[in-house]
Design brief:
This protein is α/β, with parallel strands linked by helices. It has four domains: about 160 residues, no CATH class; about 150 residues, Rossmann fold (3-Layer(aba) Sandwich), CATH 3.40.50.300; about 200 residues, no CATH class; about 130 residues, P-loop containing nucleotide triphosphate hydrolases (Rossmann fold). It is built from 28 helices and 25 strands. A six-stranded mixed beta sheet has the order 5-6-4-3-7-8, with helices on one face. Strand 5 and strand 6 form a beta hairpin. It binds adenosine-5'-triphosphate. The site of adenosine-5'-triphosphate has 23 residues, from helix 4 and helix 6. Keywords: ATP-binding, Helicase, Hydrolase, Nucleotide-binding. It holds the Pfam family AAA_19.
Length: about 775
């Protein structure tokens, strides 16, 4: 394991060549690198020789790959040709069976071809030299590791898939436990060109004919500039990370650790590993990856495809429920109420309530009798039916209950005849349309723009002021035409209570029926509005932008929960209890990978969230992996952040940073008037110094003033609020007004800690005096 004393500076990463007959320093894999430089000339020559040697092998792999791609293309074309037929009858049936075969062939061939194409970049990334003879009389076996298994014409493996058991020593071997490995080599490639090699030696003394090159692949990888998207770490996965990646699929795998310890990237590699180890189960059952925000999803979305896996569903918390997408965040106080389990009681009452403006009395002539059912009877029927049925699926049950109640008012004639006549009666049908319409969950939340209603639902559940907070928040929703992220879990909860809105069969009514229907007013039935209370789906032609806010909110169709074989949750410490319930509905039979760090939590009631989380997992076995090495932040940056969090959260999980830059974070203090200029100066500083992404992390108070900062149009600068930086990383950050970041957030200093741990290489902190 890496200790601070093992730290290297970025300057120490120039490639070196050494004969491996010297003791090795301890570094991460417990594998080390000889730091002794050979003569510069000799070194360059040796490296070039090694690269040329590896290039020859990589060329062979790509030639084989091109052949495989051609074969896959042929299979695909052949499959398509076999599918064309103009036969009929039995012959056609036979050919249809052939069609299924064709589909499977085409599907597999197309998938393989796409995979082959997408793997082109850096397909082969590793080599193991093993302490055992090779297949063709070589003194040692060399085993190449890649993103994909590739075999030659004799079906001999040229490259082993990184997830195969035979590749495990690449990640697990250490000098203490070499697992038969003498040298582990990482090949750095650009497309099919080898541009560098980095070795780790697993034995004290290498054979005389073996050259050891470079200063370690991990440090080289960490020193590189960060792009706008996360990269896979398949070439440099560390042993303890590999253990979490390859942990068994069953049950709940929890990955904890401080900032930058690779929790997210490890979890994503685990998803790829699960697909490899049990493809049938996880591809057909599906893997759901859930992260905090759309920005986060965009940040990680390329990792799995780069590992050859496309069949994973990625959702942000505002996007988990089919038919609604939310990015807007509520005020922390409103989000805290909406996320709390107390909302279940509130929503249960709302789901059981009468539809606003529905008729309160039933009056009609049925089978020659005047029937009247008063409000208490209707209320009782509603309550009884909803005890056993979801509202949107309860029409038959409620119709029967209404008929029974109507029968009870007279009890004359044939009971069954009356019940049938009642249930078929057009007046009854018309009444039910108004009294028992299908109700969309979103409509119920919009009922709660009415403060009196929310107070009624929240009686004995919500504290003073919370009902108003909710009503105000839903009013804001209605004004903006945008659901908030916290609303989505409420929509899901209500949908599970109400049932998904069913398609109504198209109505075909004769002329006389229309007349009868329109004439209902004379029976006092049509005291209701003629419009439906439920969703008013917008037409496909209308773009969402042109809809009014209410229609925008109701746009799209809310789906029931789709279930998955595996659910992977990142930044799990921030999920509200209601969000855990939302995910629980999607993972009732699934295994889980759950990633989090309590010290970065922004959710105020940890105990309630823990309860909801346990409920979502059920009684499955749970195993824990802890990550304790920070691979993201330069040590100088992480020390700064750790000092801040330790002062307030003494038990924070503080990892050890493995890399130092020799550059301390910049700290400037200005008055409010000078804030923008100071932030701009810091941005310009980092635009000159780093190659990649730069973030200005600012509290809401200063967001508008700083919005124009672009780093003189560099295209690399983003102004972002602290909460939205969760899970992300940048080459450099400018943290604006840290005291205000702490003050504005319910997570307080924990949210500031998140912001302070986003920069890989450089950071400035602009304080306001
Ligand atoms: N073995 C590794 N090799 C190379 N890079 C690594 C390795 N492990 C982690 N990293 C890099 O470290 C950085 C942090 O990883 P990641 O975002 O997964 O951490 P995290 O624990 O989820 O962080 P946070 O909790 O702060 O969001 C990423 O750039 C990742 O690629």
């Amino acid at each position: 394991m890496t200790r601070p004393e093992d730290l290297r500076t970025e300057a120490a990463t120039d490639e070196v060549v050494h004969r491996a007959d010297h003791p090795q320093p301890d570094f991460e894999h417990d594998a080390g690198h000889d730091s002794e430089h050979g003569s510069e000339h000799g070194a360059a020559h040796e490296i070039a020789k090694e690269i040329a040697h590896e290039q020859a092998y990589v060329d062979r792999v790509y030639a084989e790959l091109a052949k495989a791609a051609r074969r896959a293309g042929l299979v695909e074309a052949d499959g398509l040709a076999r599918g064309r037929t103009d036969r009929t009858g039995d012959v056609r049936d036979e050919e249809l069976t052939g069609l299924f075969e064709r589909d499977a062939l085409v599907f597999n061939a197309a998938r393989r071809r796409t995979t082959l194409e997408s793997q082109y970049e850096g397909l082969v990334f590793g080599r193991l030299d093993l302490d055992q003879p090779g297949p063709e009389g070589e003194p040692r076996e060399a085993r190449y590791i890649g993103r994909l298994g590739v075999r030659d014409d004799e079906y001999e493996p040229l490259v082993i898939d990184w997830r195969a058991p035979a590749a495990a020593p690449f990640y697990r071997a250490t000098p203490v436990e070499p697992m038969g490995v003498i040298r582990r080599r990482v090949l750095r490639c650009k497309g099919s060109e080898v541009i560098g090699v980095e070795d780790d030696l697993m034995v004290a003394e290498a054979p005389d004919d073996m050259v050891v090159v470079g200063d370690g692949a991990l440090l080289a990888a960490l020193t590189r500039s960060r792009g706008t998207q996360m990269r896979d770490i398949v070439a440099t996965i560390q042993r303890h990370q590999d253990e979490a990646i390859r942990a068994q699929a069953r049950g709940v795998t929890e990955i904890t650790g401080g900032p930058g310890t690779g929790k997210t990237v490890v979890a994503l590699h685990r998803a790829a590993y699960l697909l490899y180890s049990d493809r049938r189960r996880f591809e057909s059952g599906g893997i759901l990856v859930v992260g905090p925000s759309a920005a986060y999803t965009a940040y990680i979305e390329r990792v799995l495809p780069s590992l050859g896996e496309e069949s994973v569903t990625m959702r942000s918390l505002g996007d988990v429920v089919d038919g609604v997408t939310a990015v807007r965040l509520d005020s922390p106080a409103a989000a805290a109420v909406k996320g709390s389990l107390r909302m279940r009681r509130v929503l249960a009452r709302a789901a059981h309530d009468a539809v606003p403006d529905a008729p309160t009395t039933f009056r009609a002539f049925v089978a020659g009798r005047a029937i009247r059912l008063d409000p208490p009877v209707l209320d009782r029927i509603r309550a009884q039916v909803l005890r056993n049925h979801q509202r949107n699926h309860a029409l038959p049950a409620v119709t029967r209950a209404l008929a029974e109640a109507a029968w009870a008012t007279h009890r004359e004639g044939e009971r069954d005849e009356f019940l049938d006549a009642f249930e078929d009666h057009l007046e009854v049908e018309a009444f039910l349309r108004q009294w028992w319409p299908q109700v969309d969950a979103r409509e119920v939340l919009l009922w709660m723009t009415d403060g009196a209603r929310v107070r009624r639902y929240g009686q004995g559940v919500l504290a003073a002021g919370e009902a108003e907070l909710l009503a105000d928040s839903f009013t804001r929703t209605l004004e903006t035409g945008e659901w908030s992220v916290a609303d989505v879990a409420l929509i899901d909860d209500l949908t599970s209570r109400l049932g998904v809105v069913q398609d109504e069969p198209a109505e075909e009514r004769g002329f006389y029926e229309i007349e009868e229907y329109d004439d209902l007013t004379q029976y006092g039935v049509a005291e209701v509005r003629a419009t439906r209370q439920g969703a008013a789906p917008a037409t496909g032609r209308q773009s969402q932008r042109t809809l009014d806010p209410r229609d925008r909110l109701m746009h799209g169709r809310i789906g029931g929960p789709e279930e998955y074989a595996h659910v992977l949750v990142d930044e799990a410490q921030d999920l509200s209890p209601m969000q855990w319930r939302m995910l629980g509905r999607r993972g009732r039979h699934s295994s889980w990978t759950v990633v989090g760090d309590a010290a970065q939590a922004s959710w105020p009631d940890a105990a309630e969230a823990a309860r909801a989380r346990s409920e979502a997992f059920g009684s499955q076995e749970r195993r824990m992996f802890h990550m304790d090495t920070n691979y993201r932040n330069a040590r100088e940056i992480f020390d700064y952040a750790a000092t801040v969090v330790r002062a307030e959260v003494p038990d924070a999980d503080i990892p050890a940073a493995v890399r130092e830059t020799g550059v301390q974070p910049m700290e400037v203090t200005v008055d409010t008037a000078g804030l923008v200029a100071a932030a701009e100066a810091e941005v310009d500083r980092w635009v000159d110094e780093v190659e990649g992404s730069i973030a200005v992390v600012a509290p809401a108070e200063h967001a508008a003033a700083l919005a124009g900062l672009t780093g003189t149009g560099s295209g690399r600068v983003q102004v972002i609020d602290p909460m939205s930086t969760k899970g992300l990383e940048y080459d450099a950050t400018v943290i604006v007004d840290p005291d205000e970041i702490t003050a504005e957030s319910p997570g307080g200093v924990r949210v500031l800690y998140v912001a302070l741990t986003r920069a890989a290489h450089r950071m400035s902190v602009v304080r306001v005096a």
